[in-house]
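Extended Data, panel c. Modelled sequence:
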Amino acid sequence: MTGSVIITGAGPGVSGSLARLLAREGHPVGLVGADERAVGDLAADLADAGARVGSRLADLTDAEATHAAVTGLAAELGPVDVLHFNPSAFREKDPLELTAAELLEDVALGVGALLTVVRAARPHLREGSRITVTGSMAADEPWHRAASLGVQKAGVRNLVHSIDATLRDDGIRAVSVTVRGALSREGAFTPDRVAAAIRAALDQPVGEWRTEIPYSG
């Protein structure tokens, strides 16, 4: 791969680790996120390490702004070899506290925004391009006190299957890496270790491609 990487939902955790990992391999990196400080700090870190980097601020639930951000970065940095989708909404409410409107709001970020991102990037994807998503065990083992998160992670994993089926005849594949543990500063679930698992998923043999890969450390 010699093209660019676009990270959506960019921040200091797994997405930041993945950005640094792929930048070290020589890829230009584009960052899209809503947190000005988080995006700016990551962009500065990458630039200081010698990477070519671009960034855009956008609320990923704003389809127009997100489309402009992704297409702008692709035009600036070149064909997209890796498109990574990272965001989700954490709202500590159980099913009796969570309203339907709040659930839909959260799903708009954690699931619906993936559609916006992929549609924007599609003209800049090519044979061999890969779409990756940070998944979670919440898809299978939701915590009832954050009911919307499980719905988001189950939904985005399902959507990845459909995206892969839609694009695979063009040589573009999609995969969700299900993180089966809580992120931590040490051990198997550090952001760097999870990012390495996502990076490894890019190298799957096409004939044995899996659209979901569990990461259990």
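Strands lie at 4-8, 29-33, 53-57, 80-85, 125-136, 173-179, 212-215. This feature is highlighted in the accompanying rendering.
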